[in-house]
Amino acid sequence: MMDCKITIVGAGITGLACAQRLVRDGYTPLVLDKGRGIGGRIATRRVMLPDGAIGFDHGAQYLTARDRAFAAALQGLGSASAVWCDGAAEPHLVGVPGMSSLPRSLANGLDVQLGKEVTAMRAVQGGWELDLSQMRVQSHHLVITVPAPQAAALLGTDHALHSRIAKIAMAPCLTLMAALPGDAPRPFVSRVSDDHPLAWIAQNSTKPGRAGVFTTWVAQAGAEWSERHLEETPEIIAARMLPMLAEVIGVAPQSAVYASAHRWRYAQTIAPLGAPFLCSNDATLFVGGDWCLGARVEAAWLSGTAIAQAIIDQSRRL
Ligand SMILES: Cc1cc2nc3c(=O)[nH]c(=O)nc-3n(C[C@H](O)[C@H](O)[C@H](O)COP(=O)(O)OP(=O)(O)OC[C@H]3O[C@@H](n4cnc5c(N)ncnc54)[C@H](O)[C@@H]3O)c2cc1C
């Protein structure tokens, strides 16, 4: 049994922002994540091809900062970030050499344990007990930062917060990653489309630090198309999406040197909670995530930071 004062479930931006803020005040939170990498939905897929390695930002595409504190936090990431010139009026910030550089940089100095899935949680005397596949963790404070449907499942239907969390719907997003020869047409840097199944298409290789032999593209299907094809295998999804991308770019699908698909089951909040987090009556359990305030990385950062601040304020009052 591991004993902790504060345990955070999820090493996405919400969990990392919460942990960073706590560490600044002298706390030593433990961050657990079931994934193999840090960052959750900010992710970069690396693929080895005979001609070298390529990378795709298959989750969040770029960050925008409207909140002053969030903008300041991003500035602190230094060379891990750069502005992507994709023609947008608002600066689009990306990780360098991949989006995952951003959360990795935010995780500096934190105790993050990967490959640790929390399968159950229960209230015990003095806090919370978590079941993981090979261990148990006991913690005075517990912070859950996973997507709302997964948080509702962890809490269970009996918990007082369950009904508010279970109401938050999140739309899926099927994503295609494709590489084309370097001399293939490149008609645009990024494209948003409301009336095409591929709602977002980006020439990934135009982001700073991604130049290579191939032109890489990331295409995200809209919520409706994603919902319709959600349970298909990644191979079938890629086989459906590649011809659509090829048609938009003006190439033959067979010219792709690489194509694969990723399924994001809980990609985007449909209607957020409207508060930065939820908290149990005894203020030992906090539940947060992007879904509290919106559908963007900034919402995740604000939620995690607000949870940390609430824990800090609470202990100052004691
Ligand atoms: C395809 C796509 C494109 C996007 N594009 C943009 C964009 O361009 N700009 C933007 O600002 N935002 C974008 N977003 C949204 C953005 O990625 C999210 O708002 C943000 O990353 C959410 O962070 P989070 O920490 O709240 O959640 P997550 O990043 O989902 O982190 C939750 C973490 O919890 C872990 N976890 C889940 N269950 C358990 C468990 N039982 N035990 C242990 N760990 C667990 C997961 O592995 C994950 O790492 C996009 C999202 C997707 C999917």
TrEMBL record:
Residues 89-312 form the Amine oxidase domain. Gene3D superfamilies: 3.90.660.10, FAD/NAD(P)-binding domain. GO terms for molecular function: oxidoreductase activity. Pfam families: Amino_oxidase, NAD_binding_8. SUPFAM superfamilies: FAD/NAD(P)-binding domain. PROSITE patterns: PROKAR_LIPOPROTEIN (PS51257). This is Amine oxidase domain-containing protein.
